[in-house]
Amino acid sequence: MTARLETMPTDWQRALAIVAHPDDLEYGTAAAIAGWTDERREISYLLVTRGEAGIDTLDPARAAKVREREQRASAAVVGVTSVEFLDHQDGVIQYGPALRRDLAAAIRRHRPELVLTINHHDTWGGTFWNTPDHRAVGRAVLDAAADAGNRWIFPELGDRGLSPWNGVRWVAVSGSPHPTHAVEVSGGIERAVLSLLEHRTYIEALTDEDPESYCRAFIDQVTSTAADRFGGRPAVSFELFPR
Ligand SMILES: [Zn+2]
């Protein structure tokens, strides 16, 4: 359980991060992304929903607009300007061919070597039950990395001019209870905190804590947990699936 985490691969240039909701990447992954954009790697975000069901006090139509705006701002903090949204419905994303096709299409358009997503397992750390959206999207991302390279699985994508892309070399899952790899994030922690803080409307509805203290405590906890298995260096961990 406490084996040392391997270092994340560095021989790649393009990554596509695919998650269910605005804020999913900001609870840790963005610290790694900040470092990668510093190295002039190209990172794009794909959000499967606009997180419209995420704020109890805001109706979904208004929440969708607010959360899209906050997501674009949080991406910009870590150097990401390519942010796209699919229109699946927040809370009831369905795992299946339609979702796999949408994700395969995005992978073909972006042609990433590394695909990022968040925890698709049943629980967070074996303790807290994960959401159905995270499980559905994470599993579909792992499947779509292969689907994107097979011209016969979704032939209609080829008809739309999206050629197969079989160049995904890894899918990296952050927040996994079974991490295998990590990346050192000392230089990205401050921006990760500010990036999470951009989801201010969401966070203010979520907690009575001071938003900045809440964000800082969360990012510190994530990066120090990974540090315990990465030579004491602040890090973000991933479960890496090579292809
Ligand atoms: Zn989420």
From TrEMBL:
Pfam families: PIG-L
Gene Ontology CC terms: membrane
Keywords: Zinc
GO biological process, one term: GPI anchor biosynthetic process
InterPro entries: GlcNAc_PI_deacetylase-related (IPR003737), LmbE-like_dom_sf (IPR024078)
One function term, GO molecular function aspect: hydrolase activity, acting on carbon-nitrogen (but not peptide) bonds, in linear amides
Entries under Gene3D superfamilies matching the protein: LmbE-like
Domain of life: Bacteria
Protein name per its UniProtKB record: GlcNAc-PI de-N-acetylase
Organism, as annotated: Planobispora rosea
